[in-house]
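Need tokens for this chain, all 246 residues.
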Amino acid sequence: MTNPAPEPLLALSNVNTFYGQAQVHFDLSITVARGHIVCLLGGNASGKSTTMKIILGLVKPRSGEVSFDGASLIGLTTPQIVRRGIASVPEARRLFADMSVRENILMGAFVRNDREAIAQDLDKMLTLFPKLGQRLAQRAGSLSGGEQQMVAMARALMSRPRMIVMDEPTMGLSPLYVDRVLELIRTINREGVSVFMVEQNASLALEIAHEAYVLQTGKIVLSGPARALKDDPRIRDAYLGGSEAA
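Here are the structure tokens for all 246 residues:
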């Protein structure tokens, strides 16, 4: 007897997106099961970043549906989507460079007003990211790329999300920090947070993901369990150059 499929938490169904007259997505359908890590792979101009923007309400598709925990996200603002339980770790971190590490982390709790619990969660972040405890008063812009990525992840977790969407979480990091960030993603997921990540490094993403999708010029050309796709010879062709593609 097979186990039932995990319940979908996020679903993009038949999404068609345009920038002016240029179509970016063609009937895009992606599902993130509750409790899973799902990665989206693709080359330049494949539509990966636009997919993230749609989930966060920054771009509205012309047609199709985007739902989270069974409720539509179409038409909601980004703060409303965050309040529903989705947090973001954007590409290139996008920290407030002149603010302290502490201030940046606490920005993630802007949708909350439970001060005591926020303080407890800050302590939890410093346990999860111990190096940040030594940097709390430091300007965020003065940190290394790996440390900035940890601040961005801690900031996202401060909203107590049910899902985190991550755009190129290992981009520009040293090999040491790449391994650390991937292990932190696993840890976050084990604590019950679902993860949807766009990642340029196919082999690394498939190492930690449960499922994967390959996007090529706005269309899903390959999908399935990450373990199976990792050994699939079609990945390199569909991914427009594999790990060299952005």
